[in-house]
């Protein structure tokens, strides 16, 4: 395990974009598998296309954006570490989080082959409850992350917390997908 962590750390420094995109893909896919098997109890009825969609989202959309976002936040410097911390967490939770929540639900809807109207309906239904839960999970996470974690490991810290968050997102998206399908069939 120690050699894996050393290799992963080296990869984060050498090839941060590639490493973080792969990490995001694995964590989003794993979160969906946990959601389908542990929460939804799908067993043999596992939706592999759903897992593929959310894995693609994690690696191709979320990973690159977050890699650049953390690089941007890492460059923010103030006279005191406390001001830098407040600015980073504030930007992350006030600027990024609201956009990221809407981006997730709309992206997943489009990856399912659905329309703009269906994406709008899904975002409207899931946005505020998800954003509030996001703030409850990630505000304290980011305070700790930006206060004590070295910059090249911050994505990884968020990744570990995100495994559980991605499980929730996958489940919430599936519930919204079902609700939208029921409304559309009426």
Q: Would you kindly provide a written description of the structure presented here, covering whatever features stand out?
A:
- The protein is mainly alpha-helical.
- The protein has helices spanning 2-14, 16-39, 48-74, 81-111, 116-148, 154-185.
- It is globular.
- It contains six helices and no strands.
- The mean pLDDT is 91.
- The longest helix is centred in the C-terminal third of the chain and has 33 residues, at 116-148.
- α2 (16-39) crosses α3 (48-74) and α2 (16-39) packs across α6 (154-185).
Count every beta strand, where a strand is a DSSP E run of 2 or more residues. 0
Unreliable stretches (pLDDT < 50, length at least 5) are: none
Rg is 17 Å
Discrete helix count: 6
Helix/strand order, N-terminal first: HHHHHH
Task: Please state roughly what percent of the residues sit in beta strands, choosing from under 5%, 5-15%, 15-25%, 25-35%, 35-45% or over 45%.
Answer: under 5%
Q: Summarize the main sheet.
A: none
Give me a quick take on this structure:
Helices cover 86% and strands 0% of the residues. The chain is an all-alpha fold and 186 residues long.
Q: Which terms would index this structure?
A:
single chain; 186 residues; mainly alpha; 6 helices
